[in-house]
Amino acid sequence: MRIGLFATCLGDTLFPDAVRATAVLLARLGHEVVFPPGQTCCGQMHINTGYQREPVPLVRDFAEQFGDASIEAVVMPSGSCAGSVRHQHAIVAARYGDAALRAGVATVAAKTYELSELLVDVLGVTGVGAYFPHRVTYHPTCHSLRMLRVGDRPLRLLRAVDSIDLVELPDADSCCGFGGTFALKNAGTSTAMLHDKLAGIATTGAEVCTAGDSSCLMHIGGGLSRIRSGTRTLHLARILAATRATPDALTEATAV
After folding, report:
1. For residue 197, what are the CA distances in angstroms to 45, 96, 139, 194?
2. Which listed residue, of 14, 15, 80, 188, carries a Cα 20 to 30 Å from 213's Cα?
């Protein structure tokens, strides 16, 4: 399959390892990964903050970059960005776009997937040949859980990882408190929600907390760092991309 990879803003600027791991994983599974060089932000942060007219150029660019018929699927290591493309782009196009934009958005949305969706639903795999000998807990992010409804797909992928010790996170479906600008505008509430999430992670004794969104992991990771918990955050893609022959840097560091 020829798969278009969308890096996302956070992936491009702060967490390129998650994007790279996505490409490595899909290539290892035998697929061609292409990276349209003109891709930009999907516009989610504008839309979520109430500016629906402003991201029209971004929505149009996304539809143009990934609308190529030779790209059979579009993947991104982000449930929130996938949710924006699949749900919010159509709203923007309907209100402020033209017929061509509406058609382009519909075409691309129909073939856009978050990573776990692509692997389980489209490629039909759960065992991807991954190796990760660490105690791990999984946080289901809000957009993946409530907007995309990925369900247990990430957990099915993690359960198939060789040598992993996967432990359940208490109150896993509660929000970590990030929510983009929510964390800035409602810092007190956000911090309280984060505190609850960190307390749950602490009970697992996990070395790693993983998720499908770098934004939530950034928020959780910051909290874990401040309390010096010793638990690391790692994107799901990095765990799935790791093998015995090419382990993740975390495994290599532990082995030294």
Report:
1. 23, 38, 9, 5
2. 188
Residue 168 DSSP code: P
Do the Cβ atoms of 126 and 119 come closer than 8 Å?
Answer: yes
Closest listed residue to residue 204, CA positions, set 162, 253, 171, 173 = 171
Helical ranges in 143-256 per DSSP H: 153-159, 182-185, 187-204, 214-226, 236-241, 249-255
Calpha distance 188→252 (Å, rounded): 38
pLDDT of 256 strictly over 60: no
| Distance (Å, whole) CA 56 – CA 98 | 10
In DSSP terms, 162 is beta-bridged to 131
Nearest C-alpha neighbor of 43 from the set 116, 105, 103: 105
- pLDDT at residue 66, as a whole number: 97
